[in-house]
Amino acid sequence: MLVGTDRIERIRDFNRFYTERLGLLTDQYLGLDRPLGPSRLLWEIDDRTTVRELRDRLGLDSGYLSRLLRTLEKQGLVRVVPHPADGRARIAELTDTGRRERVVLDDRSRAGVAALLGELSPAQQDELVAAQQQVRRLLRLATVTITAVAADDPRARRCLRRYAAELAERFPEGYDEATLTRPEDLDGTLLLACERDDPAGCGAWVRLTPGVAEIRHLWTDPTTRGLGLGRRLLEQLETDAAAHGVGTVRLGTHRSLAEAIALYRSSGYREVDAYSTSPYNQLCFEKHL
């Protein structure tokens, strides 16, 4: 998708503004003897955390994380020890000095935020918090990757099984996992959404007749709901189907899935007569691409 130069420059300008205004560039973050990177790592360790979890949570490569940990070790704040149950893993834990320093870090961070908010009216404070929540939601959505995967991709198949398990709980009549489209029958495209390499959603389309396809198994992980990922997956399925010569897409859903019905209607789908024998397709929709 093309992005206007003006939007890019406005976001770059905002990034420069808030990193300077919040003091993120100094080598003495919050007035302590270390910059933001080691300070954040000290906070994330909490009391003790595996090095692997720290790496995944912060999105750091192993070499850089090791250098940060060595810096904190030299300052007497952290020690890195072998994992008691896994000889290949290591655990970072705070020393007594590190725990005291983390308390100071927490207190100064809260005081800084309180001082910042204190210059705003209650209504302005609420406005700022709401704006941050919106930025967080959109940035999470923007960093989710969606890729086409093989029909038998293990991560996608796990998503589909989770989809089936959720429907089995939500449908009064249950849901038979055998209804899932088998890999050998998936003649269209299977999309997998991932957030930081963790599967976060899926969806597929299959051909019904020449020029007509059905979208199936659109699902998002509960932790991502509210981001707009379902709509993004739906749009990418439509785009992919159109690129393969599909002019009309259909889909069916259950009356229990009010949020899915609302998504389809707001995305331009119109209700049509039943086109399949699936007992779960209590409502059927169609859209011309």
Structural features:
Aminopeptidase; elongated; Arc Repressor Mutant, subunit A; 289 residues; alpha+beta; 2 domains
Helix content: 40-55%
Summed up, the domain count is 2
From the alpha carbons, calculate the radius of gyration and give it in angstroms: 24 Å
> Any guess at the CATH architecture of the largest domain?
3-Layer(aba) Sandwich
Form type: elongated
CATH class bucket of the largest domain: Alpha Beta
Q: Give the amount of beta strand, in percent.
A: 15-25%
Domain HTH marR-type: 1-140
GO molecular function: acyltransferase activity, transferring groups other than amino-acyl groups; DNA binding; DNA-binding transcription factor activity
InterPro entries: Acyl_CoA_acyltransferase, Bact_Acetyltransf, GNAT_dom, HTH_MarR-typ, WH-like_DNA-bd_sf, WH_DNA-bd_sf
Keywords: Acyltransferase, DNA-binding, Transferase
Structure write-up:
This is DNA-binding transcriptional regulator, MarR family. Residues 144-289 form the N-acetyltransferase domain. Keywords: Acyltransferase, DNA-binding, Transferase. There is one protein chain. Helix 2 crosses helix 4 (62-74). The chain folds into 2 domains: 5-119, Arc Repressor Mutant, subunit A (Orthogonal Bundle); 145-288, Aminopeptidase (3-Layer(aba) Sandwich), CATH 3.40.630. With 289 residues, it is α+β, with helices and mostly antiparallel strands. The chain has helices at residues 5-21, 36-45, 51-58, 62-74, 96-118, 122-143, 154-170, 229-243, 258-266; strands at 48-50, 78-82, 90-94, 145-149, 189-195, 198-209, 212-220, 248-253, 270-272, 283-288. Strands 4-5-6-7-8-10-9 form a 7-stranded mixed β-sheet, with helices on both faces. It has 9 helices and 10 strands. It starts with a helix and ends with a strand.
